[in-house]
Every structure is written in structure tokens, then in C-alpha cells.
Amino acid sequence: MHPDTMSTPLSKRQIFNYFRMGLVTGLVDKPTLIAWADRRIMEEEVPDDRVIELALASRRSYSELIWLLRGFQGEPDHDLPLRLVLARAGVVLEAGAASAEHVIMGLRLLNEEEYLPVAVRHQIAGLRQNLEMCRGGELSRQELHALLAGFLDPYRDGRALLGQLEP
Description:
By secondary structure, the chain is mainly alpha-helical. It is 66% helix and 0% strand. The relative contact order is 0.16.
């Protein structure tokens, strides 16, 4: 990630895309999204209507929130939001909040993103194959964990920006 990107505030389009992909993968939950929206309302002199709608969305299903965020984000900007989702996956994996299997199953849903870079799409498909090998006894859970951690490590620099999005 370019050093200037680390200090630049995220655009709402990038934030909406991050939360949408995070919800899709299961790496971000509804309370995190709603807490972000609540904080933004308190911080902004004139809150964005879309942020207000998200703050009031606690009773909406995940699929409704994903649909809302898809509409809010406009033209997709996958580069930085994808890096942030992958940074979040690394945090979740390291914290032991989810197993490597759970993280890989969530990440595989990103392969449905039409603008996902081909290289990342192939890497995620490779992780899915590694998961199948683990289930078949050809890889241990520790080896699977190490392979996933190796894939996620280049995205570690995105963790600094996660502070703009999560408490």
C-alpha cells in the first residue's frame, strides 16, 4: 500500500465497499457497521443520509444491508477496500476469532466480485483447494493456517486504516 494511502481518510465509497465485502465474507458483523455509522453521525456536522440509514438498520438482515451498501457505494472501488478486508481477515485469524477454514470459506465468496483482480481470485481459489486438501487429510490444520497467514501477510499494512472503521 502506498504510504500516502495510510494517512488519507477513506472515502465513503471505499468505506461502503469495505463493509459490504466484510459482511459478505463474515469478517465484519452488523454491530460493527452500525457502531461506525453511529460514530459518524456524532462526528459530522451534517450527517450523510446514507450513514443515518445504516445507523437505523439494526433490524435489517445481512442480505438487505449488503444490498443497501452495494447501492450506496456507486461504481465499485475494489483496490483499497479489498486490501482492508484482507487485513481484517489477518486480524481475525491472528486473534483466533475464526479458524483458517472459516476465514477461507468467507473469502471464497469474494470470487463472486466481478471486479476482483484475477491474481487475488486465483489465490483465493488456491486456498479453497488447500482447504479441501486439509479436509482430505493431505494438509494439517496448522499447515492450512500457515498458508492462509502467508497469503494475508502482504495486506498487514492495511490494519492501520481499520481504526477508521472499527472501534
